[in-house]
Amino acid sequence: MVTAPLNEDRNAMTTENSLTHLNDKGQAHMVNVADREITVRIALASGWVKLTPAVVALLREGGIPKGDVLATARVAAILGAKRTSDLIPLCHPIAIHGVDVELEIIDAGVAMSVEVRTVDRTGVEMEALTAVSIAGLTVIDMVKALDPGATLCDIRVDRKSGGRNGNWIRD
To answer: What is the pLDDT averaged over residues 98-102?
Structure first.
């Protein structure tokens, strides 16, 4: 799993209780982040794809008819991180400075973790989550003829750092 050092501000939470993505009329809008501090921001998300033992065996042997599943999913994850603001309506388009994708064939399927980095005014949690989601969907697309029950599971943010809310790590 990809790791990065975090400081003492672990699990710091914002003191704001307002829903910042709603305007004064209660309508969704994109938050203005122009006055926020530019900081290094990192997020790590993970998830996994549940597969049948037969498909896991084919993955390990390199025998999936559509080709190299992990290589394709890795590229898809990077593209997903880069295109997040095109897919999630209220996400800001931000410069992605790095995406590390780790995919591992496990007995139950494929485990995925993606770390996304930027230096910007807003975080990259959604980019990391989107990257994991797109990687998982790509795995499913490549094996669905062999395993129509393939399932994308447990997508979540595991940690984030930077920004006004500081650092957070899932317990």
So the answer is: 98
- Could you say which of 68, 107, 141, 171 is catalytic? 141
Catalytic residue flag (residue 141): yes
Dihedral of the CA atoms 9, 4, 35, 29 (nearest 10)? -100
**Coil, helix or strand at residue 59:** helix
- How does residue 41 score in pLDDT terms, banded at 50, 70 and 90? very high
Q: Rounded CA gap, 44 and 122, in Å?
A: 15
Distances (CA, A) of 163 to 8, 25, 43, 101, 128: 14, 27, 11, 23, 16
Residue in this structure with the two tokens 């549940």, named with its chain if needed: 50
Contacts of 14 (CB under 8 A, 6+ apart): 164, 165
Q: What number is the average pLDDT over the span 108-128?
A: 96
pLDDT of residue 31: 83
**Which stretches of 27-147 are DSSP H helices?**
53-61, 69-82, 84-87, 125-143
